[in-house]
Amino acid sequence: MKRVAPSEHPRVTRVLLAAPRGYCAGVDRAVQTVEHALDLYGEPIYVRKEIVHNKHVVQELETRGAIFVEQETEVPEGEMVVFSAHGVAPSVHANAAKRRLRTIDATCPLVTKVHVEARKFAAEGYTIVLIGHEGHEEVEGTTGEAPENIVLVQTEEDVDELEVEDPDRIAYITQTTLSVDETSSIIARLKEKFPNAVGPKTDDICYATTNRQQAVKALAKECDLVLVIGSTNSSNSNRLVEVAREHGADSHLIDNHLQVDETWLEGVESVGITSGASAPEELVERLVEFFRGRGATDISELRTVDEDVRFMLPGEIRKQLAGSGA
Ligand code: SF4
To answer: Does the annotation count 138 as an active-site position?
Structure first.
């Protein structure tokens, strides 16, 4: 990273914040689930995988007593474990039952919706084309619902190469955090190749992913540079960088303001800021402060849509909260 003296700092005069940005209802629910579990049951609370894909959030929960593990098989018998927002395969529930683990499932209801579709299409005898990213936890969880029926595709080329037993019995579902535009091209290619392919009643790409991409498109048209706050393993955050670039802005993914590279700011007057669905707002505030400290005075928000989605906490937590009078 190039270091420069304060007087040499490139001058960013305008900062525009995307709205909506940051936490979605599923992430908010998952983080709150772990916080409540720690308060209600005390340490240790085990969490299978990162509860949401954000380093900062995971570190904060660790300091409060959460223990993050990769697999349920690492959790000592009889202990309590929270499953992350990305969802888990049925085999994970089965393993947990074998170890007599007490479980709280923080899977986002919009991911659960995709699991339900997978089970339904599988029961009806469809080959299910899952559009998503190989190795992503959500994809692993969804695939686990019907491993015999599901085939993963990541690109239009994958669709071209796809061979199935019965081309008239194809259903498709998608990961919730993909690029809206790219996914609709893949679905179009799939329907071209398999005209009788059927899909879910409503889109699998969730409202938060859709809204944040729409907001970053508007931002990219107004700004020279778009900074996206999010972790490198966050699918929806990576998509925001891609969408910003596709719509004319230079764009980078950063964990926090300390990762801003001076060379990105050369010749830049207006910077757009957004954050992935798992990134807390305090990281955005620190980035705004960073630019304010360098003389930016024109700081405003560009709102493309209002969001008011909320999800109820998992039943176990609600029951305990009601019992504790909290
Ligand atoms: S990004 Fe969408 S699917 Fe994922 S947790 Fe948030 S609301 Fe749920």
So the answer is: yes
